[in-house]
């Protein structure tokens, strides 16, 4: 009995450190995967902006943190964690340009929260510079 107590007293500190490192590595991996998913969401938003699926009028009137992508449940395969992803427009600054163009600085907030957890989620912010310009149908001097 005394031998078992001595072995467990010596073994527990030796085993605890690798488990702490593993937990830290898991959290770091989770953050990297969330950052990757945030970049994927940004790519989807850019594609929608390019295809005019998100109209310019929505950007001009979105000072109230409007939802830009539908809420989506995301499962991180290697960690088994599930997150709820929301993408909102945080702020828009619109400025007139020189050649009848309109510039907008759009700050996007991509938030990941765990549905049944009391932990705060992870937020990522991305800034986009967008330009709206009328393009003539014909080049000047050609007919």
Task: Give the helices and strands as they follow along the chain.
Answer: HHEEEE
Strand percentage: 35-45%
Characterize the biggest β-sheet.
4 strands, antiparallel
Counting DSSP H or I runs of 4 or more residues, the number of helices is: 2
* Class of secondary structure makeup: alpha+beta
What count of domains describes the coordinates? 1
How does the overall form come out from the CA principal axes?
Answer: rod-shaped
Q: What's the gyration radius in Å?
A: 24 Å
Number of DSSP E strands: 4
Q: How would you state the average pLDDT, rounded?
A: 80
Written description of the protein model:
- The chain is an alpha+beta fold and 143 residues long.
- The chain has one domain (2-133).
- Helix content is 38%, strand content 36%.
- The chain contains 2 helices and 4 strands; from the N terminus they run ααββββ.
- It has a 4-stranded antiparallel beta sheet.
- The relative contact order is 0.13.
Keywords:
143 residues; alpha+beta; rod-shaped; 4 strands
How is this fold's topology laid out?
Elements: H1 2-50, H2 56-60, E1 67-76, E2 81-96, E3 101-113, E4 122-133
Antiparallel strand pairs: 1-2, 2-3, 3-4
Summarize the entry for a quick read.
The chain has 2 helices and 4 strands; from the N terminus they run ααββββ. With 143 residues, it is α+β, with helices and mostly antiparallel strands. The longest helix has 49 residues, at 2-50.
